Amino acid sequence: MNENRVALITGGGTGIGAATAQELAAIGVKIVVVGRRPGPLEDVVARIEGRGGQAMALPADVVSYEAMEEVVGRTVESYGRIDLLVANAAVHDVSSIDAGDPAWWSELIQINVMGVLNVVRAVLPHMYRQGAGHVVVVSSVSGRVTYVGETAYVSSKHATTAFADCLRQEASPRGIRVTLLAPGLVDTPLADNPYAAELKKTVQPLRPSDCARAIRFAFEQPPNVGINEIVMRPVKQVL
After folding, report:
1. CA distances from 192 to 154, 174, 187, 188, 225 (A)
2. Enclosing domain of residue 68
3. Does residue 99 sit within a domain?
4. 239 in any annotated domain
5. What is the dihedral of CA 183, 185, 189, 190, to 10 degrees?
6. Label partner for 231 (CA 20 to 30 A): which of 29, 138, 165, 182?
7. What is the per-residue pLDDT across 158-215, written as a single tens digit (0 to 9) for each?
8. At 160, which CATH number?
């Protein structure tokens, strides 16, 4: 039953993370949202609780493995288990290689790549003890193609795409389902940049709720069914 299942969502205060939290709460899943800013997390929790759901906000930085260990520990202490991890936290960059900010690139890689590795590392031993679980890694179609203008971001998403498949090969024999979600342009705060603004002139972006429904679809499959990858683009997006 969904009311006995628990989802932990990083980057849960806005965009895809917030939409996924509300989508899953609507079917009775208990929700833990994680992010660096308490305010947006509390807003998501309030919306869920206002509709009769159960949710908890745990402000934390995915760059810190120790913080992710604490988040997992507090989730298990409060709810007893973790059935679904949505590793969603990410940041963005638009720059040329010759003029980009290496300090920001370093922070981006820490959040987008190490943030995913850290939270999965913290959750996976618990899922192994349960004998079941589901990890959704939110990447991007930018993890499948290359182009000019978002080099650091594209590189980070190629890394998380590769990590998700490594995780699937390692964890699926132990009963853990792994899904890579690779959306195209989504109308989130990450899309508030000149590159996305140009694309929006010809393309109607996906909504965060579109991605949330895709995650729910993968999560609601029978236990023996693994949806390994979902690639979704706005209809007119070519790249």
Report:
1. 16, 40, 8, 7, 36
2. 2-232
3. yes
4. no
5. 80
6. 29
7. 999 999 999 999 999 999 999 999 999 999 887 777 778 888 889 899 999 999 999 9
8. 3.40.50.720
173: CB partners within 8 A, 6+ apart? none
pLDDT at 189: 81
Q: Which two tokens stand for residue 44?
A: 């998501």
Residue with tokens 């943030």: 115
Query: Lowest-pLDDT range, 67-71, 139-143, 200-204, 207-211?
Result: 200-204
Please say if the pLDDT value at position 61 is more than 70.
yes
Q: CB neighbours (10 Å) of residue 146? A: 12
Work out how many domains the chain is built from and give that number.
1
> What integer best gives the mean pLDDT of the chain?
96
Annotated catalytic residues are 153
**75-95, pLDDT tens digit by residue?**
999 999 999 999 999 999 999
DSSP per-residue string spanning 143-165? GT---SSBHHHHHHHHHHHHHHH
Report if residue 12 sits inside a domain.
Answer: yes
Is residue 108 situated within a structural domain? yes
pLDDT score, position 194: 77
Kindly state the helix (H) or strand (E) to which residue 31 belongs, with its residue range. strand 30-35
Residue matched to tokens 């997006």: 237
Q: Give the CA radius of gyration of the chain.
A: 17
Long-range contacts: 197-201, Cβ < 8 Å, 24+? 199/237
